[in-house]
Each structure stands twice: as structure tokens, then as C-alpha cells.
Design a protein that fits this description.
Blueprint (H helix, E strand, L loop, with lengths): L1 H27 L4 E3 L5 H11 L3 E5 L6 H6 L5 E4 L5 H4 L6 E3 L12 H8 L7 E5 L6 H14 L4 E5 L2 H12 L9 E4 L5 H8 L2 E4 L3 H9 L4 E3 L8 H12 L2 E3 L7 H8 L5 H14 L4 H13 L7 H8 L4
Length: 319
């Protein structure tokens, strides 16, 4: 019953919010608008269209959300993380650009300096495991189950989340004293996350757009465990990397300690690891953030945007 009520009320709410958005934009008069979807973007983009304010719409998933599909024809330009998204949005005549996902600039990161800052010994193989912002419990459980066998062979940097951090510390203390330094649990990483990615040899994690983009930009092979309750978005994102040869996909329901140990065997196969690293780098777009910012500024100045081929090259960091 509640769902039926919202089916009736939501369109009414959206309709009432358009005049509010028009009033707000008329007062503020932004030179351009950057939209990323979600229902809040619908009245904003409609209002911008009425006021002739240019809009750059960005979609970071292979499968676009309903709001993005609705407002894409009203945007001035659409930026995509994946070429595979294009057919779902390209019917309204809005120009589409492949930019990738805006991420932290990875191009000048020094791998050896990052490993020194994290205390990783020279030549040590490092596995980075993190669950992103959603449902890290499955990955945490796999780390706890496999930890004694993992640290016999490799170093493990594990971002557990705050709730599981005490358990991770207890698991570290349960290891033989001479192996404890090989396991580095953290409740969360902010600025240090770039160092962790630079230092790692293999990433095990979810398939959020930013996670995949940063791993690809770093040339990092991934074992991807898509979050199963996001409308299939993460699985679709992951399959792009798998098809490129940059990642392996393991479904959430079968990911356990044994699956993690199997994933880590990639570090014992240098040729396969090198192929996956090259594949990841080939699809990386380290300059995506700069390119998207330049596009938005061009729209704000009412300047023509460069052609899609140039945007494609620039987002890859190519001149």
C-alpha cells in the first residue's frame, strides 16, 4: 500500500518542485550545471532547460538509472564512464562523450615511495582488500578465514570498516608473532587510499565506479566481488573489466576464505598478472576529472566542446 501511495505522490512532488527549481536557478543564475542523476536532478535539469542554462550530465555506471535516462535528452552534453552505456542514452540527440570516472590524479604517484610510507618491504607482494562503502562484511569474513594462510605467502592490507576493525586487530594478534607485520588492518583510509592502491599488486573489492576507475588508472589487476543488492549495476560495471582482461569476477554468495586464497594465487603467476595489469592500464582514464572540469567550464563560457575523439584521448592522459 505504501509503495502505491508513493507511485502517485512522487510525480506530484516532482511537478511541484520544478517551479521551486526555476526560482532558485533564476536567483542564483549559475553559468552551468553538473548533474549526476538521482531524482533530485530531474526538476533541476528541467528548470535549467527552461532557463537555457547548459547542463553536463555524468553517468558512472554501465546501466544508467531511470532519472538519467529521463533527463539525458534535456542535457547539453552527457559524459559517460563506459562506452557500453551509450546505446541506452543516445536516442535523444544529446552529444555523448566517453570521459571515464572522475578520480584522484594518479599519474604522478610514486609506487616505491608509497610502499615505504606504508611500511611494505621491497619486493614483498601486497594484496589490498576493501569493501567500499557498501556491505564489506562478506569480504571481511573471507579475510578472517584465509588470513593465516595468506600471510605465510604475502602481505595483506585490509580496510575493514569501523565495525569490523576490533575483530581484525584480534585476528592480527592471533597470528604468529613473526607474521603479524604482514597483516595491516585499517578501519578506513582517506588520503592514504591512494598510497594503498599505488603500493598494491592485486586488489580485491567491490565494483563501484570509482574503485574500478582508480584500479584501472593504476594498472592494478582486480578480483571483483560485485555488491549483489544494487540493481545489478556493480555486476555490469565489473563485466567491462572482465571482458577487457583486467579483472576476475567472483559472485558475492560464493566469496569466502577459499575464494580469497584462490584469488591471491594470481600473485604466483607473473605472466598472467602482467597481462591483467596491461589490460587494466589500457582502459584506465586517469585524466577524467580534469577533462570533465574542462567540459563544464567550456559550457559555462558557451564555448563549443571538443570532439568526442579528443575527449576520449585526453581522458586517457594522451595529448
Amino acid at each position: 500500500m505504501e509503495r502505491d501511495v508513493h507511485l502517485v505522490l512522487d510525480p506530484i512532488r516532482l511537478g511541484l518542485s520544478v517551479p521551486q527549481a526555476v526560482g532558485l536557478l533564476a536567483r542564483r543564475r549559475p553559468a552551468a550545471i553538473f548533474a549526476t542523476g538521482g531524482y533530485v536532478a530531474i526538476p533541476t535539469v528541467l528548470a535549467a532547460r527552461l532557463l537555457r542554462i547548459p547542463v553536463l550530465l555524468w553517468e558512472g555506471n554501465v546501466v544508467p538509472g531511470r532519472s538519467v535516462r529521463l533527463i539525458a535528452p534535456m542535457a547539453t552534453a552527457v559524459a559517460l564512464s563506459y562506452a557500453e552505456t551509450g546505446p541506452a542514452l543516445g536516442r535523444g540527440g544529446t552529444p555523448i562523450y566517453l570521459t571515464g570516472t572522475p578520480i584522484r590524479d594518479t599519474r604522478d604517484v610514486d609506487r616505491e615511495a608509497a610502499r615505504q610510507r606504508l611500511g611494505i618491504p621491497p619486493g614483498a607482494r601486497l594484496l589490498l582488500v576493501f569493501g567500499g562503502s557498501q556491505a564489506a562484511r562478506r569480504l571481511n569474513g573471507a579475510v578472517m578465514d584465509a588470513l593465516p594462510q595468506l600471510v605465510e605467502r604475502i602481505h595483506v592490507l585490509h580496510v575493514s570498516g569501523h565495525e569490523a576493525y576490533a575483530e581484525a586487530l584480534a585476528s592480527r594478534e592471533a597470528l604468529p608473532e613473526q607474521l603479524r607485520a604482514r597483516y595491516r588492518p585499517y578501519p578506513f583510509l582517506r588520503d592514504e587510499m591512494l598510497d594503498a592502491l599505488a603500493a598494491a599488486d592485486l586488489v580485491v573489492g567491490r565494483a563501484g565506479s570509482s574503485t574500478l576507475a582508480e584500479a584501472a588508472a593504476m594498472g592494478l589487476p582486480m578480483v571483483v566481488v560485485p555488491y549483489p543488492h544494487a540493481g545489478g549495476h556493480q555486476r555490469a560495471n565489473a563485466r567491462v573489466l572482465v571482458a577487457a582482461g583486467a579483472a576476475r569476477l567472483v559472485e558475492d554468495e560464493v566469496f569466502d576464505g577459499a575464494a580469497l586464497l584462490d584469488a591471491a594465487t594470481l600473485l604466483d603467476r607473473p605472466e598472467a598478472h602482467l597481462r591483467m595489469s596491461a589490460a587494466a592500464r589500457s582502459i584506465g582514464r586517469p585524466a577524467a576529472a580534469a577533462v570533465i572540469a574542462d567540459m563544464l567550464m567550456a559550457l559555462a563560457r558557451r564555448e563549443p566542446l571538443p570532439g568526442p575523439d579528443l575527449i576520449d584521448r585526453w581522458s586517457r592522459g594522451l595529448s
